[in-house]
Specification:
- By secondary structure, the protein is mainly α.
- The chain has three domains: about 15-105, Orthogonal Bundle (Fumarase C, Chain B, domain 1), CATH 1.10.275.10; about 110-200 and about 220-360, Up-down Bundle (Fumarase C, Chain A, domain 2); about 360-460, Ribonucleotide Reductase Protein R1, domain 1 (Orthogonal Bundle), CATH 1.10.40.30.
- About 60% of the residues lie in helices and about 5% in strands.
- It contains 19 helices and six strands.
- The strands form three sheets. A two-stranded antiparallel ribbon has the order 1-2. It has a two-stranded parallel ribbon with strand order 3-4.
- Helix 3 crosses helix 8 (about 210-215), helix 6 (about 110-145) packs antiparallel against helix 19 (about 445-460) and helix 7 (about 165-190) runs parallel beside helix 19.
- It is elongated, with a radius of gyration of 31 Å.
- The model has no long low-confidence stretch (mean pLDDT about 95).
- Bound molecules: arginine (ARG).
- Arginine binds near residues 24, 110, 114 and 322.
- This is Argininosuccinate lyase.
- It is found in: Cytoplasm.
- It is an enzyme of class 4 (lyase).
- Pathway: Amino-acid biosynthesis; L-arginine biosynthesis; L-arginine from L-ornithine and carbamoyl phosphate: step 3/3.
- One of its GO terms (molecular function) is argininosuccinate lyase activity.
Length: about 450
C-alpha cells in the first residue's frame, strides 16, 4: 500500500527503511499545536473567500480541535507511515469528518505549512526566552543593589588589577544580557512573517486572502516572495546565532561562578540546592549548574553551524534538506530556556563572602593606579608616576607589604610629593569611590545604574 496522501502516481510501496529514514514525525510532532492553529486559520480564510462552505469550515475546525485534545490527552496514535506531523493530523481529520477533511489542503502545500508552523513555534519560544532573560536580569539588579558597596579585586589577565565593587561586576553581566535581549527582539521581527499562501513554491490559483490569514495568526505580514517563503530558514539560524551569543555570555558568568566557589577564591557560596556532591569524596560540593551551562553552550554553537551548513548552497525553493532544521532548533530552544531558568533561579540566591573579597582586594597592589593618579594630581607626569609606583611595588614585594601598609616615610623614599593625604587614596573605599562617573565602579554609580536598569526593564 502506498501513502494515501501522495500515492497516486506510485506503483509500489515505499521501502520500509526509506519510510523510516524520510519520516520526521518522531520529532516534528512537537509542532502539533502550531500545525492545527495554522490549519484552522487556513480553513477560515478558504471559507471567507468562498473556496470552502461555512459548514465545511466548521467541520474542519471542530475536527482539528478534537484532534488537538486527543493529542494532549495522549490518545492520538502517531504513525511513521504517515511521515510527518502534517500528514498525521490531516489523515486523522479525514478519518474523523470524512471527505471534507480532504479539502483542507486546498491552496496549500506542506512546504508553506511547515515553514509557517516553525515560525509560529519559534515566535512563542522567543517570547519565553525574552521573559527568562528579563527574570535573570531582574535578579542581577537586585543582587547588584545589595552588593553596591561590596569591594572585590577586579582582574585583567586574571591578575589583580584594581578594586571594583561586586555590584559593578554583576552589572557588567546585566549589560551583556541587555544586548542579548535586543538581539532576540530583533530576530523576532523576521520570524514573525507568514509563509502560508506560498503553497509549494509559486503561490496558488485560488483567490486566497493572505492578509486575512496573517491577521488570524498574528503575523505582521505575508511573506513577499513565495520561493523565498518556503525555502529559507535564516530566521532559525538567526535565533541560533542570538542563542550562541547569549550562551557565550552565560559561559563567562559560569566560569567566574565556578572560580569564585573554589576554595582558592572562596568569594561566594552557592546554596546547596544548586550543587551536588561526590560519590567518593565526602567533602565535595560541586558547582554543577554553572558547569553544565558552560558545557551546554557547545551544543548551541554546534547547532548554529549545523543550520548554516544545512542552508548553504540550497537551490530555490524547498528541499527536503530542510526537514533537518528541526532537531537542532528544538534542542537550541530547550538548552537556552533550561540554562536561563537555572541561572535566573540560582543567581539571586548566591551569597557574597564580603570579608574574603575585601581581603583579596587588599592584596596584589590593587591601588597602585590610584597612587600614580595621586602623584599626577601633585604635578608629576603620568609616565614618571608610573615608574615611581612601580619602584614602590617592587619594594613592597621585597618587604612583604602592600602599599596601604607602608609608612609615609617608606613611601616618600620614592617621591617627596607624597604627603599624609595619600592614606585616603590607598584605601579600597577611596579607590572605588573615586571612579565616580557614568559606567564607573563607585557605589553611587552602581546604584544609579541599577535604577537605569530597572527603568529599562519596566518599558519592555
Ligand atoms: N516534513 C517536511 C519538513 O519538515 C515537511 C515538508 C515536506 N514537503 C515535501 N514536499 N516533502 O520539511
Amino acid at each position: 500500500k502506498t501513502n494515501q496522501q501522495w500515492g497516486g502516481r506510485f506503483s509500489e510501496a515505499t521501502d520500509a527503511f526509506v519510510a523510516r529514514f524520510t519520516a520526521s514525525v518522531e520529532f516534528d510532532r512537537r509542532l502539533y499545536r502550531q500545525d492545527i492553529q495554522g490549519s484552522i486559520a487556513h480553513a477560515r480564510m478558504l471559507a471567507k473567500v468562498g473556496v470552502l462552505s461555512e459548514a465545511e469550515r466548521d467541520d474542519i475546525i471542530r475536527g482539528l480541535s478534537e484532534i488537538r485534545m486527543e493529542i494532549e490527552r495522549g490518545e492520538f496514535t502517531w504513525s511513521v507511515e504517515l511521515e510527518d506531523v502534517h500528514m498525521n493530523i490531516e489523515a486523522a481529520l479525514t478519518q474523523k469528518i470524512g471527505i471534507t477533511g480532504k479539502k483542507l489542503h486546498t491552496g496549500r502545500s506542506r512546504n508553506d505549512q511547515v515553514a509557517t508552523d516553525i515560525r509560529l513555534y519559534l515566535r512563542d519560544e522567543t517570547d519565553l526566552v525574552l521573559q527568562e532573560i528579563t527574570r535573570l536580569q531582574q535578579g542581577l539588579l537586585d543582587l547588584a543593589e545589595r552588593e553596591a558597596d561590596t569591594i572585590m579585586p577586579g582582574f585583567t589577565h586574571l591578575q589583580t588589577a584594581q578594586p571594583v565593587t561586586f555590584g559593578h561586576h554583576l552589572l557588567a553581566w546585566f549589560e551583556m544580557l541587555s544586548r542579548d535581549y535586543e538581539r532576540f527582539v530583533d530576530c523576532r521581527k523576521r520570524i514573525n512573517v507568514m509563509p502560508l499562501g506560498a503553497a509549494a513554491l509559486a503561490g496558488t490559483t485560488y483567490p486566497i486572502d493572505r492578509f486575512y490569514t496573517a491577521e488570524l495568526l498574528n503575523f505582521s505580514q505575508p511573506a513577499g516572495n513565495s520561493l523565498d517563503a518556503v525555502s529559507d530558514r535564516d530566521f532559525a539560524i538567526e535565533f541560533c546565532a542570538a542563542s550562541s551569543l547569549l550562551l557565550m555570555h552565560m559561559t563567562r558568568m559560569a566560569e567566574e561562578l565556578i572560580l569564585w566557589t573554589s576554595a582558592q577564591f572562596n568569594f561566594i557560596n552557592l546554596p546547596d540546592r544548586f550543587c551536588t556532591g561526590s560519590s567518593i569524596m565526602p567533602q565535595k560540593k560541586n558547582p554543577d549548574v554553572p558547569e553544565l551551562v558552560r558545557g551546554k553552550s557547545g551544543r548551541v554553537f554546534g547547532h548554529l553551524m549545523a543550520l548554516l551548513t544545512l542552508m548553504k548552497s540550497q537551490p530555490l525553493a524547498y528541499n527536503k534538506d530542510n526537514q533537518e532544521d528541526k532537531e537542532p532548533l528544538f534542542d537550541t530552544v530547550d538548552t537556552v530556556q533550561g540554562c536561563l531558568r537555572a541561572f535566573a533561579d540560582m543567581i539571586p540566591a548566591l551569597e557574597a563572602r564580603k570579608p574574603v573579597m575585601r581581603e583579596a582586594a587588599l592584596r596584589g597592589f590593587s591601588t597602585a593606579t590610584d597612587l600614580a593618579d595621586y602623584l599626577v594630581r601633585k604635578g608629576v607626569a603620568f609616565r614618571d608616576a608610573h615608574e615611581i609606583v612601580g619602584l614602590s611595588v617592587a619594594y613592597g614585594i621585597q618587604s612583604g607589604q602592600d602599599l596601604g601598609e607602608m609608612s609615609l616615610d617608606e613611601l616618600r623614599q620614592f617621591s617627596d610629593v607624597i604627603e599624609a593625604d595619600v592614606a585616603e587614596v590607598l584605601t579600597l573605599e577611596g579607590s572605588v569611590a573615586a571612579r565616580d562617573h557614568i559606567g564607573g565602579t563607585a557605589p553611587n554609580q552602581v546604584r544609579a545604574a541599577v535604577q537605569r536598569g530597572r527603568d529599562a526593564l519596566l518599558i519592555r
